[in-house]
Write a sequence for this structure.
């Protein structure tokens, strides 16, 4: 799953540019509480993900997600990987919420075969896509690798399986592996680079990896400083880790 032409930092930085539309459907878009007129101090705070039991993923599904994430964005000398950054938690919360249900999507028929350029084509919402695809991938692994599911096979076998799904070379029973991999990679990037209040990017690992200073109030002093590193610690919507550790 790697290329000799790019290191991990370059690959993920490129992924941010092409996959930066984060599936932050955790709350409806409102800016104030109550009704107009607006009063000072009435702004809604975004919901903050709290550690706790899984909201959607089963234990077996979470094991698959952990194993696959460890191959897509591994932990290495540059810092924590997707598993350590809490991307499994991010995906779990997204699938349990409006995004997972496709709450804002048109999900009715008719169902003619669409083009790849037309985007998501499955009749299943994202949560259903994940559940069906993970079951089918584990069934394929069990059939192919001596009774072992995806989480139990070797990293090299996991890489080969994920690459085959991504290229469309592996056909699953009852699931579109290529469509699933497209969604899964997009959600992986979102969880690794979204603000930590949504459950991923734990310790701002993704932001630290690419040198992003985060959701700071004012960048005006740096607007004209082109190609100059902004050497500032990252700050999220909740603040900096040292400001409010709880």
């Amino acid at each position: 799953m790697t290329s000799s032409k790019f290191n991990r930092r370059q690959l993920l930085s490129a992924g941010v540019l092409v996959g930066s539309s984060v599936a932050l459907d955790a709350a409806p878009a409102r800016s104030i509480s109550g009704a107009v007129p607006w009063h000072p101090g009435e702004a809604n705070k975004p919901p903050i993900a709290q550690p706790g039991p899984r909201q959607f993923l089963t234990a077996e599904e979470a094991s698959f997600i952990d194993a696959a994430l460890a191959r897509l964005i591994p932990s290495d000398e540059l810092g924590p990987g997707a598993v350590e950054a809490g991307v499994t938690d991010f995906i779990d919360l997204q699938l349990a919420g409006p995004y997972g249900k496709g709450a804002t999507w048109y999900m009715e028929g008719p169902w003619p075969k669409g083009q790849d350029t037309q985007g998501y084509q499955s009749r299943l919402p994202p949560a259903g896509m994940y559940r069906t695809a993970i079951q089918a991938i584990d069934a394929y692994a069990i059939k192919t690798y001596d009774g072992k599911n995806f989480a139990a096979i070797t990293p090299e076998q996991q890489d080969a399986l994920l690459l085959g799904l991504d290229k469309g070379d592996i056909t699953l029973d009852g699931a579109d592996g290529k469509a699933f991999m497209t969604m899964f990679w997009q959600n992986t990037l979102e969880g690794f680079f979204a603000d930590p209040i949504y459950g991923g990017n734990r310790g701002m690992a993704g932001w630290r990896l690419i040198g992003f200073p985060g959701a700071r109030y004012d960048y005006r002093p740096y607007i004209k400083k082109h190609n100059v590193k902004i050497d500032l610690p990252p700050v999220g919507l909740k603040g900096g880790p040292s400001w409010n550790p709880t």
Residues 18-24 have pLDDT under 50 and may be disordered. Residues 8-16+51-106+122-210 form one domain. Residues 126-144 form the longest helix (19 residues).
